[in-house]
Amino acid sequence: MAPRLFACFGVKGSSTSTTTGKGISGHNAAVVAADVPVGDGPVLVQLFSSQGCKTSPEAEMLVSRLGRGDFDGKIRRDGGSSGSPAMVLVFHVDYWDYLGWKDPYGSSQWTVRQKAYIEALNQDTMFTPQFVVQGRVQLLGNEEETLLKSIVEAPRFPSPAFRATFQRPTSETLQVSLTGALRMKVDSSGIDIMVALYENSLVNDCPRGENSGRVLSNDYVVRKLEKLCTVKDLTAKKTVSETAHFTVWDGFNSAKCGVAVFLQNTSLQIFGTQSFQLPDEI
Fold first, then answer.
1. Which helix (H) or strand (E) holds 247?
2. How far apart are CA 216 and CA 60, in angstroms?
3. Is residue 35 pLDDT above 80, yes or no?
4. What span, in angstroms and rounded, lies between the C-alpha atoms of 130 and 182?
5. What φ, ψ does residue 97 adopt, rounded to 5°?
6. Model's pTM, two decimal places?
7. Partner of 44 at 20 to 30 A CA spacing, among 21, 75, 102, 138?
8. Phi, psi for residue 193 in degrees, rounded to 5
9. Which H helix or E strand runs over 274?
10. What are phi and psi of 280, to 5 degrees?
11. What is the rounded distance in angstroms from the CA atom of residue 179 to the CA atom of residue 212?
12. What is the pLDDT of residue 21?
C-alpha cells in the first residue's frame, strides 16, 4: 500500500473530486420518540475537520448552516418528508496537532475512520476539510454547491423507528437505550447500528497553529461513537432493543448535545439515520 499523504485544502487553487465507492426507568431518566419521516430519511453528511487546519473553519461554518436547516429548501426532493433532508456529524482528526495547536476535540479514532473512507473510496490522500456523503461520495469541504448537489443525488433510506431512553447511572456515564424497528430488511451480510454522541455551540480561542488568533466555533462535533449492535437476517418490522453506554467528558451539558443513530455496512456506506436531542436535564 502506498504511503499516506496529508493535506489541508482551501478553495483557491484546488480542484474538487467526487468519487463514488463502494423501557428503562430510574434516577435521571428521560424518554424521547423522534419524528420518523414518512418518506425518505435524512442523508448522513460527515465532515472530517481539524482546528489545526487553516481552511477547516469555513467548512465548519457550512456544516453548521446545513445542520440548522439553512439549505433544506435546496436539498429537499419533490414529495420528500417534512423532516430535515440531511443529518450532519463532524469528526475532528488529530494529524494536524503537530503544527502547534492540539485540537481539543481531535481523536486518533476519527483519523482511523477517515482512513477507512479513503481506502473504501479509492483515494490516496487524507485531507481536511473533507465531506463524505452517505458513505459513498467524498469531496472537498469548502465546495458548497457540490455538497448540496451530492446530497440531492445521494440514495435515501427509511429512518429507523427507534424510541430512545436516556439515563445517567452516575455523573460520569450516560446510557442510551433504543427500541424499535429498522424499517428496512437486513440480509445475511449484516449491518452495524452506530450511535454517536455529539456536541454543539463549542467556542475556543486558538492561540497557536495555522488558526492562531482566531475564535473557532464548532457544531455537531462527535465526542463519542459506539456500535450498538450488529444485526443480520432481519425483517423490516422486527424490533431491535439494545443499550449504548457512554463515559461523558468534564463539563458535559446535555442541553448542548444530541444523539445520532445510523446504519452502516462493512464499507461504511450508510443505510438509514435518525437523530434525537438530549433533554435539557438528564
1. strand 239-247
2. 9
3. no
4. 29
5. -60, -25
6. 0.89
7. 102
8. -100, 115
9. strand 270-277
10. -60, -35
11. 45
12. 38
**Cα angle for residues 82, 154, 19 (degrees, 5° grid):** 155
Confidence at residue 58, expressed as pLDDT on a 0 to 100 scale: 97
Task: State pLDDT tens for residues 181-192.
Answer: 999 999 999 999
Note whether 226 and 259 are within 8 A (CB). no
Q: Mean pLDDT, the chain, as a whole number?
A: 88
CA nearest neighbour of 149 among 85, 240, 237, 193: 85
What 3-state class would DSSP assign to 114?
helix
Say which residue the cell 432493543 belongs to: 241
At residue 111, φ and ψ (nearest 5 deg) are -60, -40
Helices (DSSP H) in the chain: which residue ranges? 56-67, 72-75, 108-120, 144-153
Sign of CA dihedral 151, 154, 158, 164: negative
Rounded Cα distance between 179 and 36, Å, is: 14
pLDDT of residue 30: 58
What single-letter amino acid sits at 277? Q
Choose among 11, 24, 100, 118: nearest CA to 57.
11
CA angle (112, 247, 179) in 5-degree steps: 90
Which H or E element spans position 68? none
**Integer-rounded Cα radius of gyration of the chain:** 18
Handedness of CA 253, 255, 257, 262 (dihedral sign): positive
The C-alpha cell at 41 is 430519511
Q: Can you read off the three cell numbers belonging to residue 219?
A: 457544531
- Each residue of 262-273: pLDDT tens digit? 999 999 999 999
Q: Tell me, what amino acid is at 59?
A: A
Q: Which residue from 237, 229, 245 is spatially nearest to 177, judged by alpha carbons?
A: 245
Enter the C-alpha cell of residue 5.
499523504
pLDDT for position 187? 94
Cβ neighbors of 226 (< 8 A, separation 6 or more) are 194, 195, 244, 245, 246
Amino acid occupying residue 105: Y
